[in-house]
Design goal:
The protein has 196 residues and is mainly α. It has helices at 2-46, 51-155, 169-193. This is CCD27 protein.
């Protein structure tokens, strides 16, 4: 959005410069018309003189005015050429800035779409995380019940002593493995004696 605002400001500056140059061009054209009017006024003034005086004065004035006009026309043509060149450059810059504005807006639109997709994925992950937490709590609860049953079964065997403190998983497994080994050993002895 900042880039678009900057481009639009540049565009407004260039358009303002273009309007200023066109205004100067119109002013130069107006000055040229005023000079032509002045020449016409001088011509009318000397029209009242005698023919010979009028011709001599007109020739001198015309030479001087023609020289001045030629210089003015040359200067104005040069200025107009420069202004036309500058107008062309400004129009090119304006077109480029307009294209950059369009490109920036497209990038912004793509960024917003990508942001929406990321937001959607984040919400899906949060939902999945919640489901996983619920499942984990359920599994943890079942595991704890199963562990308690193992502890009860392990230490309810005749001759076993109740634990004095909270048991670790390794201690529970060790006690259970001991009972399994004792039972297997007992079964092996029975088998050796021929008992079913």
């Amino acid at each position: 959005t900042g880039a678009i605002s900057s481009l639009q400001r540049q565009l407004e500056i260039q358009e303002s410069e273009l309007r200023r140059i066109r205004s100067e061009k119109e002013l130069l054209q107006k000055q040229l018309r005023e000079r032509e009017a002045q020449l016409q006024a001088v011509s009318d003034k000397f029209y009242s003189l005698t023919e010979e005086q009028r011709q001599e004065e007109i020739m001198v004035m015309m030479k001087e005015e023609n020289h001045n006009l030629q210089q003015a026309v040359t200067e104005q043509e040069s200025q107009l050429a420069e202004q036309n060149k500058l107008i062309s450059e400004l129009q090119g810059t304006i077109s480029q800035l307009q294209a950059e504005v369009v490109t920036t807006r497209l990038h912004l639109l793509k960024h917003k779409q990508a942001q929406k997709e990321i937001q959607s994925q984040a919400e899906a992950l949060q939902h999945k995380e919640l489901q996983t937490r619920v499942a984990l709590e359920h599994i943890s609860s079942k595991f704890e019940r199963y562990r308690n049953k193992i502890i009860q079964a392990t230490f309810s065997v005749e001759g076993s002593q109740d634990p004095q403190a909270e048991l670790t998983d390794d201690e529970v497994l060790e006690a259970m493995q001991k009972i399994i080994n004792e039972r297997m050993e007992f079964q092996q002895r029975l088998k050796n004696k021929g008992s079913k």
